[in-house]
Amino acid sequence: MNRRNWIKRTGAAGAGLLLAKYIKASDLTLAFDAKDFVKADFGSDFKWGVAASSYQTEGAWNIDGKGESNWDFFSRIPGKIERGENADVAADFYHKYAEDIDLIKEMNFKVFRFSISWPRILPNGTGEINLKGLEFYHKVIDKCISVGIEPWITIYHWDMPQVLEAQGGWTNRKVLDWFSEFTNVVTKEYGSKVKNWMVINEQLSYTGLGYMQGIFAPGKKSIKAFMKSIHYSTLCNAESARIIRKNVIDANIGTTFVTTHIEPIDQQKKNIEAANRMDAIMNRLFIEPCLGLGYPEDTLPILKKLKKLYEPGDEQRMVFDFDFIGIQYYFRTVAKHSMMPGMRAKEVKASERGVPANEMEGEIYPEGLYHILKKFSQYKGIRNLIVTENGTCVPDKLENGRVHDQGRIDYFKSHLEAVLKAKKEGVNVNGYFVWSPTDNFEWNKGYRTRFGLVYIDFKTLERTMKDSGLWFKAFLG
Ligand code: IFM
What we know:
Number of helices: 18
Bound molecules: 5-hydroxymethyl-3,4-dihydroxypiperidine
Number of domains: 1
Low-confidence stretches: 1-34
Number of strands: 11
Oligomer: single chain
């Protein structure tokens, strides 16, 4: 489709104009020269996809032999999830997977990235395999393939069997055996049909928010637990990738990291250093050990404590040569010095700075994605980048069968422009996956914050494609 048609069909103005609406000129650190773009600008091999996860979408929490997950357990603890919600039903993807995959197809995406629920496959965490669980993902994979969509599997997206969480979960070194067993089962089962695999979704999220801040499962607030979860999940990341390599012929193996572009609030030395320490945790902590660079303890000395957890050979065991690295980007973080022990830095929230933000207080800052892609492309060991998640939550309203989510369309356009700019400057970025095909359960926020291209009425489970879904349909068509 040429540029003029695209504008006509979507009714959209140039991306430059849309960008201007969101970012004060004085905040711009990057000039977006191109005013518009088309799909072909990204190249014919570029992967266009959508991403989702098991706990957030499937529901069917205790159906067909599934075991309890840490999130099933955690969401039942009063006060943990807004309005006391849980994902017992969620988007009911378990029953509506065919409809949802048809919608993904209709929006012209070619990749569906989804995760596998560990307790659906291994209800007791290890040992006995639930055949109905195996069968479910075969149906999902087969449906994708039948409509020409590539299934991309994430092995772990935060739903650990509760029986293992009760034994310490990611803070127990035995997780290496548990996770290897799970990886072995799923790769042997699906490896002949699925060639694209990601090991873990965003280590920082479930380790930091789950074991240190206590707002995600399992709700712990302990630096010690955080440290253990960092090291053991880092080992698992590489170990599981080696298992995929062994079990899946011609596998394309990646893993995903949550990232944020970090800037100091001003140019004072103490704030610049605070921003660097924050960067060490939020962007460098997990990628660097897997590239053989170790943890970034030069910038953040507290990380030296991780060495106490090492067993002989760990340094090498953390390393894996991934085929691609998944970048997940949502917002910028502005940092300033604080007395908080450890990181000695704190975030200056978007609301304090009066800048545009999503409903979760994440600043809308597309240039940040450009900077992150540039930053990661500078690591020698990274060969290929894919944006495995990007998206936003805006206050959607279903009115007369339509959801006019122009804010989300603007978000995608400006972020795609950032990807394209990086690509044109030589960054090896080869894919972009939207979070998320449908609305779903947003962890501790419950159902309040919606990220989907397709709206879900959580009472009736009826699906309605939002304007952003229609925008992608036209853009990718
Ligand atoms: O919903 C989450 C997802 O599970 C992990 N990445 C960020 C998304 C939006 O917050």
